[in-house]
Amino acid sequence: MHLSRRGLLRAGLATTAAAALGGTTAGCSVPSGSTGRDMTLWYWTGGLSDKVVAKATSRFTDVDLKPVQIGGYFRSKLLTTMAGRAYVPDITGLKGEDMASYLPDADQFVDLRTLGADKLKDQYLTWKWEQGATPDGRLIGFPIDTGPVVHFYRADVFDKAGLPTEPADVAKEMDTWENYFAAGDRLRKKIPGAFLLIDGLAVFENVINQGTQRYVDEDRHFIGDQEHVRRAWALSLEADRRGLLSDIVSGTPDGNAALEKGLLPSQIGASWAAGDLKLNVPKTKGKWRAAAMPGGYANNGGSFLAITKTCREPEQAFEIITWLLNPDNQTRGFVDASLFPSTPASFEQKAMREPDPFFGGQVTIDVIGPAAEKIPVAYNSPYDVALGQPIKDELKNVTALGKNPDRAWRDAMNKCRRIADHLGVS
Amino acid sequence: MATAPTAPVIETPGPAVTGAGAIRPKPRSILGYWRLYLAISPFYLLFLCFGLIPVGFSLYLSFHRWDGLGHMEYAGLSQYRYLLGDAQFWHSISNTLIIWAIATLPMLFIALVAAVMLNSAVRFKSVYRFAYFLPNVTSVVAIAIIFGSIFSTNFGLVNAVLQGLGLDQIAWLNTPWGIKVAIASLMTWQWTGYNAIIFLAGLQTIPGELYEAARVDGAGPVQTFFRVTVPLMRPVILFTLVVSTVTGLQSFSEPQVLLQTTSNTSTFAGGPDNAGQTMVLYFFQQTFDNNDFGYGAAIAWGIFLIVGIFSIINWRLVQRREK
């Protein structure tokens, strides 16, 4: 095609005119939500089973269900769209770690109790259900998946170290953090170069997640200086003092090499971490097992679906999300996308009871399922992220840089008080 | 030799151009030029939409408290007061400046040397030019993943070399200085080629006679480089310095991707001692991790001020040299 200067100019003018026209006309008629028969559903890659979503689009014919996979930083895109009040999705995924920060703005979403959600409550894990609800009981998040934390370990390495190898025995012998560290001491003695855990945060985060409180309570009081946090801090330092923590940076070749060589034979991770192991160290297939974690039960991750207030047909949307997330489809979600179900009924289904060759033929649901049901109901504050970070930063300074622990704790508390004051937390 | 004329590189506009004798077109009203204004309008319209309005909004936002979704609450100057006393913000400024310095100085020097080599008659010139420019158009995310491997402690390339030389391993991504060096070397690698291409363009404006004269005077290649090339290239070097300052002070993706796995569970924390937390990274942490949008906006204006100060310093430098 020949491009003349005049032609280019003309094209430029046409584009400008179109943009200007579009701008003025759109200015008075940008729809706040979907239009026509459309019902948009926002989720992220791997957030739902694509097959189940595809089935939903053909099953629900009263509306045109438009699933959209949003790439990049999901939360900021959702916030921008909702703040802009334009093209807001009817149904949207909410990530578990962001859930607490959506709850103060529950009025932006439909209270699912008004659509009859309470009838379904029995089918879902209680602690998960409560995570999607505000303190005054409004339900905005409907449970997708969960991340029960368990103890993944290398049976071959444990055997060499003289530690128990059967999941039940491992769970029994390493039932508390103290006993787990004692096993770590034996591991360190028998296997040169091996470490129990990758870093201090692997202890700290899991101990915090096992509790029912975090850094801020329901009355907006800072509680990060209380016993439950001090205990997590002390346990992390104890592991560090005993030399059980590696200085490996996770995600680098060092981490994977250590996993493969059996120098990091113990991983306290959420159910989805099994997928990471399979992906990163495929050669260790058959050597891993899963057991209950030491010191209690914890959750890490897992998401929700919500209906925004711009949705024009909430009843229809509710029907769609409850179908997408019923026990049968949660089982499919587990098979297709490794989403661990929030519906205990799924744990009994055949597709979830397949022996896993990566775990030496173990039926891992026998460990993860009961763990999922014992997770405590915890309060998550929208200010937890801001007020937990200084403590984790300082813990890193102690374990990685050898900072004096007392000074680090004091510094963390000083930072927290300042941030709390700024955020209106007392 | 030391006072070589700078005229070939910089054209100073003389007063003669707009002299009395110049033919002027008849003055036309702005409306008379509507076609031309229309032709350049797309940029300005887009800039208004996606540049100026958000900038204005962020200023408005910095006087409020907002979680990104609910109601905005007027906060007066409190966000700025908090910013001034925020040790972590000051820490992020020093991180940024240190990383910028470690990255930029070697980068400009290597780029100049590379440009001189490219400028001399070698075969496959365009292949080299392409190769030098390639890092600049490669995704930062991909580069950072590779650099994460290069700087890993036990199996990293850098430590393999150190050990080959009989030196100790360094836990690059686990120590404050190691983190800064890793980020800086990533930036150096990415931007050296870009600056080399700009230098090359500058070099090609230096007349060959000057080099011939230097050769006749008995100057070697090193002497020629420092006595002829560098002085004549000063304006171009200052230009690249300005560009590197503006980009370097806003570094974000490099530390974010490089340190996301080490970063104390927040991808914006910057590793031990927050050593890799640049100003923009801190801005992101406050805004998107903590949902403190008002404070985030105040930080953004703090960054604006700092970049502004450095731009003024640079501009003054250029002005003085040109006198």
Essential attributes:
A: 426 residues, alpha+beta, D-Maltodextrin-Binding Protein, domain 2, five-stranded mixed sheet, three-stranded antiparallel sheet, 10% strand, globular, B: 323 residues, mainly alpha, MetI-like fold, two-stranded antiparallel ribbon, 64% helix, 1% strand, MetI-like_sf (chain B)
Give a structural overview.
The complex is a heterodimer of chains A (426) and B (323). With 426 residues, chain A is an alpha+beta fold. Chain A contains 18 helices and 10 strands. Chain A has helices at 5-27, 50-59, 74-84, 99-102, 126-131, 155-160, 167-173, 177-190, 200-210, 227-241, 253-261, 273-280, 314-324, 327-337, 344-347, 365-373, 384-401, 405-423, and strands at residues 38-43, 64-69, 91-94, 142-143, 145-146, 149-154, 266-270, 288-292, 304-307, 340-341. In chain A, the strands form 3 sheets. In chain A, strands 2-1-3-9-4 form a 5-stranded mixed β-sheet. The model of chain A is unreliable at 21-27 (pLDDT under 50). Chain B has 323 residues and is an all-alpha fold. Chain B has one domain: MetI-like (MetI-like fold, Orthogonal Bundle), CATH 1.10.3720. The longest helix of chain B is centred in the first third of the chain and has 33 residues, at 87-119. Residues 1-21 of chain B have low confidence and may be disordered. The interface between A and B is large, with 46 and 47 residues.
